[in-house]
Amino acid sequence: MDKELSSIHYDEYLQLKKILDAQHLRSVGFNKPAHDEMLFIIVHQVYELWFKEILHDLGSVMELFSEGTVIESHIGVAISRLDRISKIQKILVDQIDIIETMTPLDFLDFRNYLLPASGFQSFQFRQLEVSLGLKRERRISYTQCSYSGVFSDKEQKILDELEKGDSMFDLVEKWLERTPFLQFEAFDFVEEYKKSVGLMLNREEQAIESADYISTQEKQLRINMMGETKTYFNSIFDEAIHDQKMKEGTLKLSYKATISALLINLYRDEPLLRQPFMFLQKLVDMDELLTTWRNRHAQMVLRTLGQKIGTGGSSGYDYLKTTADKHRVFYDLHNISTLLIPRSFLPELPKELKEKLDFNFSKDKS
């Protein structure tokens, strides 16, 4: 019989004997069985299984983008797999509701048996962070040692290699930098966009000055704020200032990649830009959900432990809350929204460029 057609039992295929025999309660070993330790173990084992699937899907997307030119059909595949990751992340957030059915006193029944085990020792989660683009120099440290010091030599080597290679962030940046429509014959996107921004801001200033429902003092305050907005837009289109902000660490995404992401967001309704826009949105979704999970995790720790030190030696809640704020990878893509202008102010694309961004195969070219 062909091996591919041979039968296999459900239990054997899923390796259930290994999985279901993998919950060993330390409290039982100390003859002080704590009922909720079973829940604690299973929830964290499930986390690790989901991390494995996320790494599997993310790795496949990174491979699609690592070969230079990205085949158009691969964008759809990437969108689908990132969407799956986001749905898994929502489950990871929801699992915290389950673990919170365990009260703080329930946890204290077995917490001392965990020392010094900690979620900080999750190798797969560190792989995920590095694969996305969280580099060593941008990490908030919870000890004076490297984050990778809790792992074996083999695992540290894997993390080091990941750090040296292109992350998802790096691959996306390079892909954006290859966007071909920033300069199209006589159409210069940046210059045309600058003009549109100027028109929009001038119109908003005129609307403030002519408003009869606010005081003179309030008008002046709003006009001053408009001045700050103008300064922000002007600096965005000065590549030297952008590069300086990158050196300072306030921006990560290169100037050209940022402008490309802006173009894709502004002209998202053009058929050939629709999928690139959806792809960028999925990256933002994934980054946002990871931040949501970090925040939710921090709140769970505060509820369960208060201000106690974590089992891994961190400051507990304070450390986790800080990472939620600082460990965002695709922040620059979130910030594109600051630069968006109403469709009514968008520079009109040349006919030839619109045709290149459209599906013209069904039109009569004769």
UniProtKB/TrEMBL annotation:
Q: How does it assemble?
A: Homotetramer.
User: Which reaction is catalysed here?
Assistant: L-tryptophan + O2 = N-formyl-L-kynurenine
Alphabetized Pfam families for the sequence: Trp_dioxygenase
Regarding protein family, the annotation reads: Belongs to the tryptophan 2,3-dioxygenase family.
Its needed co-factors are:
heme
**The keyword Heme appears for this protein:** yes
Q: Which UniProt keywords apply?
A: Dioxygenase, Heme, Iron, Metal-binding, Oxidoreductase, Tryptophan catabolism
Keyword Iron carried by entry:
yes
Question: What's its EC?
Answer: 1.13.11.11
Annotated binding of substrate, by residue: F40, I41, I42, V43, H44, R111, T311
This chain's source organism reads Lutimonas vermicola
InterPro entries per record: Trp/Indoleamine_2_3_dOase-like, Trp_2_3_dOase
Q: Where does heme bind?
A: H297
The function of this protein is: Heme-dependent dioxygenase that catalyzes the oxidative cleavage of the L-tryptophan (L-Trp) pyrrole ring and converts L-tryptophan to N-formyl-L-kynurenine. Catalyzes the oxidative cleavage of the indole moiety.
Q: How the cofactor binds, per note? A: Binds 1 heme group per subunit.
Q: Cite the annotated pathway.
A: Amino-acid degradation; L-tryptophan degradation via kynurenine pathway; L-kynurenine from L-tryptophan: step 1/2
State the protein's name: Tryptophan 2,3-dioxygenase
